[in-house]
Amino acid sequence: MNRRTLVLPAVIGLLAPVLAACGGSDSGSGGSGAIVVGTTDRFTASKDAPAPLDPAYAYDVGTWNILRQTVQTLMIQPRGEGEPVPEAAERCGFTDTGNERYACTLRDGLTFANGNAVTAADVKYSIDRARSLKADSGVFALLSTIDTVETQGDREVVFHLKTADATFPYKLSTPVAGIVDPDDYPKNKLRDGFELGGSGPYTLKADVEDGELVKAEFTKNPDYKGTLEVNNDKVDMVSYKDADAMGKALDKGDIDLMTRTMSPDQIRELSADADTDVDLVEMPGLEIRYLGFNTDAPTVKSKAVRQAMAQVVNRSALVSKVYGSQAEPLYSLVPATVTGHSNSFFNKYGEPNVTKARSLLDQANITTPVKLTLHYTTDHYGPATKKEFEVLRDQLNSSGLFDVGIKGTPWDTFRPAEKKGEYDVYGMGWFPDFPDADNFLAPFLDADNTLGSPYDNSQIRNTLIPESRREADRLSASASLTDIQDIVAGDVPVLPLWQGKQYVAARDDITGTAYALNSASTLQLWELGRGVSG
Predict the structure, then answer these.
(1) Which residue in 26, 88, 104, 517 has a CA-CA distance of 20 to 30 Å to 497?
(2) Which residues of 377-406 are buried (b: 16+ CB within 10 A; e: fewer)?
(3) Per-residue pLDDT reduced to its tens digit, 237-273
(4) Are 98 and 135 in contact (CB under 8 A)?
(5) What distance lies between CA 524 and its chain's CA centroid?
(6) Record keywords: Amino-acid biosynthesis included (predicted)?
(7) The CATH number of 286-501 is which of 3.30.40.10, 3.30.70.2390, 3.10.105.10, 3.40.50.2300?
């Protein structure tokens, strides 16, 4: 048995054949029972986030991976990557030469899981609802280029855009554009708790304890119509407190597959151990990690402080000590494998250099050592995060220019505090909404950005982002995208650190694992099946 499988990246822009199928297929695990998937993602309904699964609010990879199984979108990322293809829609496309009018025709006979018909009016309601609620997660910003949504009969939807946006089809493939039933989702408030309904490939039953979703039971929707072939009848997703607990569950046979988030040690052990009935699948990923700055905070308000940190941090040493071959140093917000990437931070700062960093601080009359606290989340990006921040702290402190402490906080406390501007410097990760350079730049730099960052560069917002979105050929947008990355390297509102690979570990009777995750870390449970071990 080939214990370790490497999934090679799809060619960017290559459109794989679309599987024209529906959820009524007889394929799948049949009487073998549910396929059980482990995750360390935590799903909590709290005072600060009472509606974690509402498409108008949800904006992290864990909640999106629940929504993508249940709430249908007009468009979807195809199995083999490439440009989005119709999903709830029968067809979609720009109807003008300026990329400002986009029209979709719904599939005939679509219904929500509760039996209600899906109409163009429901699409308009869902999109307008997310735009008007403006949830503090910032997810509504993905729809910011929409001016108005028009319906023509029960199946035609027309989006009139404020400005050209070649990335709009990608945005219609994200859960914030998910189609919801107006009977279940009030217009003027979020839907609290873990109730969820849609027209996607699965229905959801949520097992909740003390305000936390501990198990999500996905059952194949017999009335689903779309492009996806559903290869199983049921999948249970179980949430574990950490990677060790999840790994033990896999060893015991309590779960069939685990992915987010394995520890580096687990991945190394699985890679080395050939005598096991567990397969490790490695695939390229677009996950990035970075430091964010509250640029209004006194400690980092001076650009020189942020530039000095960029000059001192040694990404190669950080990756080597913490992640080994599982990650690569990153010198831009845009990953190296995405069209439009530029090594802007390396071009500006080169190799780590304490002398240059000291000069930056001296020229700005900054007294050293600069006292800072680096904040990180203890339970959202995996068990190696603490070690990562210990290495960052030591690198900065060893320069003699900084006096850095670190502090870890659980995600359900960390994220609200970050959005409120309570942290001067904080560690975050980003799993793209869609695989385009725009989605690694606009969410951090545009108005209503996901970080709630006060950083505002008018050239980026008013000229370069709109300019880049006019180019349907994304290679033609590279000049504008490079200019954005160069400005970010100079101003350092964020400091990119590394780009990671992604992994799935599964028992060897589970099929479809090579497609269980796409490059944007979307969990595609419909790909999984149960075969013969050995």
Answers:
(1) 517
(2) bbbbbbbbbeebbebbbebbbebebbebeb
(3) 999 999 999 999 999 999 999 988 899 999 999 988 7
(4) no
(5) 14
(6) no
(7) 3.10.105.10
